Amino acid sequence: MSTHNSWQPLGPAILFAPADRPERFAKAADRADMVILDLEDGCRAENREAAREAIASCDLDPARTIVRVNPPEVEDYAADIDMLRGTAFRQVMLPKASSAQQVDELVAALGEKTQVIALIETPLGVMRAEELARADGVVALFWGAEDLVAGLAGTSSRFSEAEAALVPGRIHAGSYRSVAVHTRSHVHLAAAAHGKASLDSIYVNISDANGLAAEAADAAALGFAATVCIHPGQVPTIRQAYRPSDEEIDWARRLLAEAEENTGAFSFGGQMVDAPLFRQAEAIARRAAVTG
Description:
292 residues
């Protein structure tokens, strides 16, 4: 089983685009760092055949394009895979992922160059997050809150304003409930433990830019590779949240330059620099590079 891969998204803002709205493909690709052409929830079932034709004939850059197929247990899945065989698109999001076998079968169908983003959004998928992270074909884990809560017979992944008003200061409107917090952490840890990237979930309240900014900043600080979004207007907020401050960039660059002149631990700015601090500086430099 693989324990490391070099796949990283080309930037922190990844935008969903409905596969049955091909007139939006180019705009989505232009606005975001990467685009997800969605054949599953974002595509009406009766439009999927036409949507597959639209993907097969589009000229988007395969390096900046992910295709979300339908889950393996859905009839449309086989048709999705057949369509992808005739294209150059090999970054594939597998929804409701729950086993390494599903990943292996997907890679076998599309070839060894297939890069699978496993979408963990069911109770079983959460319990098998580490198995999915270990799978050779998986390059990243992405978690989803709403399908997960539905699978628990729940109704909402976040606290409402009314609930927050009952206990002021203890919970905040829009913040995740405990199961979602656990899942986010568990999926992120599973990905990191096996050298895979992790993508943070969508923020559904598109009018709440401050809430998105806070959640994306938290994701960046924790080491998520990107935040997935559902509206072009969310892209600038995510990019800004992931961009380190000028002070952080300057600190990281000076530390990394100093590290080239030293071996082992050394003193920098009154701190002893060892491997963890060095990796933090590398992470800041990477985020600065992809956020401009």
